[in-house]
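Hi support team,

I submitted a single chain yesterday and got back a structure, but I'm not sure I'm reading the token output correctly. Could someone confirm the output below corresponds to the sequence I sent? I've pasted both exactly as they appear in my results page.

Thanks,
R.
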Amino acid sequence: MVRVLVVEDEPQLADALREALARESFAVDVAYDGGEALEKYAVHDYDVVVLDRDLPVVHGDDVCRAIVAGRRPTRVLMLTAASAVRARVEGLAIGADDYLVKPFALAELSARVHALARRTAPAAVPVLERAGLRVDQASRAVTRDGRPVALTNKEYAVLVELLRADGGVLSAEQLLEKVWDENIDPFTNTVRVTVMKLRRKLGTPQMIETLPAAGYRLS
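Hi R., thanks for writing in. Yes, this is the structure output for that exact sequence:
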């Protein structure tokens, strides 16, 4: 699951971006000013930050500089109303990985976030397989012993994380961080319920093992 931080001081646009990216199965958090963005960046590991340049509290340029200085693999897509070439060059010189001029099509923004996310993570294995379970990450098709398995976005994301762990244990907290956004209650039983539904859909024999006080793994 790709985690995205949208930093935009226009609430209507920020919420529209969150909804559009969430439909693409991204886990999306929102900050409405540069100060809030830096606070969230300090707590969470984001794959992509969609960053408005003209922000209150802390200017977008300074937020971008802080992200670059953090030396994480986070990619920055900078948004601006300025269409001049000089403005775009300045943004890229600060450390932004890509630039998009307002107004823009949501489809283009989504495509650019997808492209930046591919640069953030190691090259994904096209097909994940384990004991008759097969996940094609390009088509998002899931089968077990040749039988198609229909999953929700969250169920699919949890399954992919468990497959990537290759038998390692993932705690509920780790799955919350990787699959859900910041609005999820950290004390929720959402992970347990999602795993329960995933087990049921995958069928027998059961593949997902629960380790008390530790987490989950594929057996």
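A quick pointer for reading it: The longest strand covers residues 75-80. Let us know if anything else looks off.

Best,
Support desk
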